[in-house]
Structure formats: C-alpha cells, structure tokens
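Board notes (copied after class):
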Amino acid sequence: MNNQSPKGNRIAKVLSRSGVASRRDAEKIVLEGRVKVNGEILTSPAFNVSESDIILIDDNPIAKPEDDRLWCFHKPVGAITTARDDKNRKTIYDYFPSSLPRVMPIGRLDINSEGLLLLTNSGELKRKLELPSSQLGRIYRVRVKGQPKETDLDLLRSGISVEKDFFKPMKVSIDRQQGANAWMTIEIKEGKNREIRRALSEIGMQVNRLIRVEYGPFKLGNIKKGEIIEINKKSMRRSLKSVNISVTRENMRQSTEQKKFSAVSRKTSN
C-alpha cells in the first residue's frame, strides 16, 4: 500500500482508541501486516487515517472509538498482572466480570504485591498515565522486617543505584514499629520493575508486605480485595485534569454501565 500519510490521525492512535491494543502494540500489529485500510494491507505505522477510511484487523472491522474509561481494581496477592500465564497461575483477569470490556492495566504490580491497580480501555490514556514525564506519584504502604534507621533510609531519599538501575529519590517515612516488623510509607514517581523491593534490599531490608494505596490522583480507598469499580466520567476528567492529563470524549453521554464513584476518591491537596 502507498504509505504516504494523508491528513487525519496516526493509525496506531486510532487502533489504540478503539481498544485494540496500546499504541506501541498497535504499531507491531501493523508491521505484522494484519491491518488493511480501504482494502489494502498497511505496511508502516507512519500512516494517517480519516473517519471515512475502512480499517480492518485480520479482515475484521475495528470497533468505533469509545470514550476513555478508567477502573480501580484492588489486586490481591497471588494474582499476575497479565492476561495469560504460561504457568497457569491466576491472573487479574480471573477477577473481572464477563461484562467488562477489554481493559489494559496501567503499570504493574508483581505477584506478591497488592493494592490499587488502574485499568483502562484506552491505549492512549494508558500511555499518558505511565509516562515518567507525567511525574505521577505512586504511594505504597510497606512492611519490612526489622527496625529501619533514618540514616539508612536517607540513601533512598537521595537516590540509590541497584545493579544497573538508578532509582530516583523517594519520599520515605517510618509510620510505626509493630513487633519484629516496621510499617513505612513510600512514594515513588518512576515505577521501575520491583523498585521498592530492590531498593530496600540494597540497604539490607526485607519487604514482607507491599500495598499500593495511591496512583496519581486516584486512591484505593475501601475497595475490597478482588473488587473492581469504574470511576464515573466526571470524576475521572476532574482528577486527570488536576495532573494535566486530558481524555478522549467520543460521546458526552454518561454510560449506563458505569458504577458510582463510591469508595474511589479524588486526591485533594492538604
């Protein structure tokens, strides 16, 4: 196909907004030769499409773009943040109702971590919320074995190198000592793989429980383990606007499938 780009939106962005995949994965789908535009196979993701174009994936038409939607899920320990697992372990998708549309996790929580996991139907919104440049804080309640010292934690507050990774400064506070364990609150803004566990291990501390309680403007609140709640559109837009993130609105009408905002609250400044 002639890959000269007309006016419109990039094909990966359109596929992402239709819930096909994240923008990066949509580009891979194009390169695999699975996408047709107006009957011709697309060979490059550097191509713009308009509303009048007919787009097929594997010879099936893509869904019309929906409004960006966002859910809060209380991930329990033992669930894998993936759709499929080669070892046949339980995944987060095993907890979701069959009526839930196709959703993608925003960031990850490892198998032994629990707490707030955001999900969306929009690859574009997923990308915005994951970008390091968004500078969104992730706040965790962390239980460690032993009695942490402020001098050790100062290493985390100033930034620490672990193997080939450098973890930027974290906000760390000791909340209380509970027998042989101590509870701390830690805020990070990068979310690298097992960042908190690895950083604490580097200063000789073993994490035995890790709960994400906030991601950007969204809080875990009192959502029960294994429960998923959709954030209503008005609250979502207001919360995202507070951190300078915009959303796509294909339809201004409120979805009748949405649950009330309930326990999920917008973070307010002190």
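Comment from the instructor: Helices lie at 11-17, 23-31, 123-130, 150-157, 195-202, 233-241. The chain is about 20% helix and 30% strand.
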